[in-house]
Amino acid sequence: xxxxxxxxxxxxxxxxxxxxxxxxxxxxxxxxxxxxxxxxxxxxxxxxxxxxxxxxxxxxxxxxxxxxxxxxxxxxxxxxxxxxxxxxxxxxxxxxxxxxxxxxxxxxxxxxxxxxxxxxxxxxxxxxxxxxxxxxxxxxxxxxxxxxxxxxxxxxxxxxxxxxxxxxxxxxxxxxxxxxxxxxxxxxxxxxxxxxxxxxxxxxxxxxxxxxxxxxxxxxxxxxxxxxxxxxxxxxxxxxxxxxxxxxxxxxxxxxxxxxxxxxxxxxxxxxxxxxxxxxxxxxxxxxxxxxxxxxxxxxxxxxxxxxxxxxxxxxxxxxxxxxxxxxxxxxxxxxxxxxxxxxxxxxxxxxxxxxxxxxxxxxxxxxxxxxxxxxxxxxxxxxxxxxxxxxxxxxxxxxxxxxxxxxxxxxxxxxxxxxxxxxxxxxxxxxxxxxxxxxxxxxxxxxxxxxxxxxxxxxxxxxxxxxxxxxxxxxxxxxxxxxxxxxxxxxxxxxxxxxxxxxxxxxxxxxxxxxxxxxxxxxxxxxxxxxxxxxxxxxxxxxxxxxxxxxxxxxxxxxxxxxxxxxxxxxxxxxxxxxxxxxxxxxxxxxxxxxxxxxxxxxxxxxxxxxxxxxxxxxxxxxxxxxxxxxxxxxxxxxxxxxxxxxxxxxxxxxxxxxxxxxxxxxxxxxxxxxxxxxxxxxxxxxxxxxxxxxxxxxxxxxxxxxxxxxxxxxxxxxxxxxxxxxxxxxxxx
Length: 735
Description:
This protein has 735 residues and is α+β, with helices and mostly antiparallel strands. Helix content is 39%, strand content 14%. The chain has 25 helices and 16 strands. A 7-stranded mixed sheet has the order 6-7-10-9-8-11-12, sandwiched between helices. Strands 1-5-4-3-2 form a 5-stranded antiparallel sheet, with helices on one face. A 4-stranded antiparallel sheet has the order 13-14-15-16, with helices on one face. The longest helix is centred in the middle third of the chain and has 28 residues, at 453-480. The protein is extended, with a radius of gyration of 37 Å. The model is unreliable at 1-34, 598-611, 658-673 and 687-693 (pLDDT under 50).
């Protein structure tokens, strides 16, 4: 039944809605000859304001224009009484107050506003308790968008859920999200562009950070810890509950530290995040000679107390196990913190960071200069501490540099950076923090200057997954493929024991050792003394002490102590004596193929106060081993699943019904009770200038050497750096 809202009849039929909209006799209907989609007219009744907006937008989409809300009025009780919808071309463009545009900006400014009068006003009818079209005008003064171009209208753009999910995945893995429209552009009903992808990530970021960046990190980390109790994090706050320092370790990082934590590279030169906080990462070397991340921290400053807090937290996360050796930059604050927290750890300074300063500190140390060649040979090729000290003093006297305070300071701390002083300590063959630097370039593909704290932690997890996949690929090659050129028994044994990349280093030493000369020069108690030299350079000799019964011994080159791989001198002796296998005491477990599968922590005995984290590590490792058999057969799969279900039922019966509830309640209660954390302030660490600091394209701070190595202008007339021919004074005088 249809009735007119303006009828004078005293009797009215009850309102009946059909298909959510009640049709009435139209007083004014759109008659522009271009009507598609739903019909609209004055007096039309809608069940809700949302339905009126939906129908008008559908009408606009079908006819080639877009709609926006111009005005909304509220009644005395704060409820909406009317709303005016207009064409997006309504009104005229006006310059914003307080913002003036220059001539070029005004010329580039575009607008669709042309004073269009098309409108729909919907009012609330108190009597009938419905919404009614109070005014409808479909008089447009502009061209309607053609059907082929309708997809460019803002209201017609459609970004499906699959596209949003793909954009988020691309963002997490560091891929360009602008490629998503090109991938899905051929799908029917898909209408979005590159800008929509970036807008979606902006909206998602705002939604994630509704509680604040720092608090969002806390909530994310607590959820991660509930999912996996081996995840560890710690936050240092000031008196105003503002985040100062933030440290976290993934479960896999703690697991790998058990076997590969003997040597750690620590670096704080990476600062790509929203707050410019230095990223302090703990990096090690795994059995495939790949860099592995143990843990990370974001610091507010680089003061000694911040590093002390970080190192103590690190010890807590790693069950009190300190590294055997640690490599860092030449930083006094880091050095003091290492002495306080790791008193028994050997601390070395990065050789590259020190030698790279020579050109800026010493004027005569230019590339290719005699001084540069002599000092490099002295630092890297000295065969003993005594030889180094003799050569160093000789060079200093030769170039009259006895009063140079910087060189004298380096000589005073020579034990912490000259390689020959640390040859007897295991450093996995490292003299520099290059592995940490390589991790920086790896992170560049995941983060940027605008990365928030929460995004940084999430992308750090993705970065670890990427590194883990690389390790799995190398593990497969090492375990199931064999070198084709391994011929001697020692070589075959090394190929079976070592991973592929470690074996390559071992093979080089072995093949060099086969061709060495060995001379027995004496016996010292239980050791036989050999002099080993090369045919090409017989003057270069190495003395080897070795027990011919147990084959225990050492070489004065100390390659095994420093790198964990037998040197060519000992291998030459073993080859001459037809030894077919590498002695067990010369095989470091950290370099073998089975080190990952041999990470066993003893199960806690009754009364043993083993930490919960350690128990979880045992459990997760056993489950990982078990998962390898899931796909062997259907029978095996059902056996494993049924056994786990039976074990779970027995454990739940032993523990009682409240154990699961109590495990998560304290964390959730702590989350509710603690005051929200405040976001950290922009970090201003030492050595950073506000304006003049040079940074790379990726946002990393450049060293003085890198800045000096940048290409400078050279005058084609006078051949002097610093200017060109146009500004050359000599050229101007001649002309």
